[in-house]
Amino acid sequence: MSFSDKTRYRIAAAGTALAVAAGLGAAPAGALIKATNAVPGPMADSSAHIAIGNMSCTATLITPDTLLTAKHCIGQGNRSFISIGGQHFGEAHQAKSVILHPSVDLALVKLYEPSRMPTVPISGVHLAQGMTGTIIGWGGAVNTPFMPVQQATAEVQRRVVHVPSPEPDAVLIETFIKGGLIQRGDSGGPLFIDGQLAGIASMSNAGDNNSVEGTIGWYVPVAEYLDWIRRHSGAPVPGPIGQPAPLVDAEKFPTYAPQPAPPTLGDTLRRMIPGLPYIPGLSS
């Protein structure tokens, strides 16, 4: 199986981050660290660790045979491995095909066989400032074997465009991350509002090598693409609820990141020993 170069979409390459404000940059969303094991239930059990081509990401099961993820998670090459469920060794699958959105960072991954894991409902809610939800990510599994899927909290800030990045025209929901940090390797993961899928992780300020990296995630607003999701997945989708928030130009009104929690013992050790993986408990 291979995926067409004509339809492949890429955001920032690893190591690339363009300034947003005071050294803040936007790069592919990454692995949750300093987070907690996800609460057992549909949000965790519908999560999928996917490796398609040369990319490793997170996705969410929205029908028994369809995952929703970020378009830049469809990498180059023929590799296809998918593990569905909240534990490290989940239900194994392979990708049968992918459907890429023509203009935004969304993709649907079709499975050869239907999954027995629970699906999650699609949210029709247009996200607004102050809304709080749960984010889930599998990126920590890359460096920490046997870790279950991780979760943290995201607070919606703004609906923005012109985030300085390789995709400045993308309309995204800007969130501040609490109870964890986003790092590279976890794109495509879900933002849940009241247990419903409301956003897909597209970019973050991970990898900026400053005190605020991993504190901001930018999400594709699911409510703005309900027709495309329904048409290509068959998933039941609600009608939109509310109106899209006003669009803020992030070039004119830059993003300023919140200060993260003070360094932990694990943070100090990783600075002393490059390559040391995140160890649950040591860095919490």
Automatic annotation (TrEMBL):
Alphabetical list of SMART domains matching this protein: Tryp_SPc (SM00020)
Keyword Signal found: yes
Keyword Cytoplasm: no
Family: Belongs to the peptidase S1 family.
Pfam families for the chain: Trypsin (PF00089)
Domain Peptidase S1 residues, every copy: 12-234
Organism: Corynebacterium mendelii
SUPFAM superfamilies for the chain: Trypsin-like serine proteases (SSF50494)
UniProt record, GO biological process: proteolysis
The protein, known as: S1 family peptidase
Range of residues in the leader sequence: 1-31
GO MF terms held by the record: serine-type endopeptidase activity
PANTHER family: FI18310P1-RELATED, POLYSERASE-RELATED
Keywords for this protein: Disulfide bond, Signal
InterPro entries: Peptidase_S1, Peptidase_S1_PA, Peptidase_S1_PA_chymotrypsin, Peptidase_S1A, Trypsin_dom
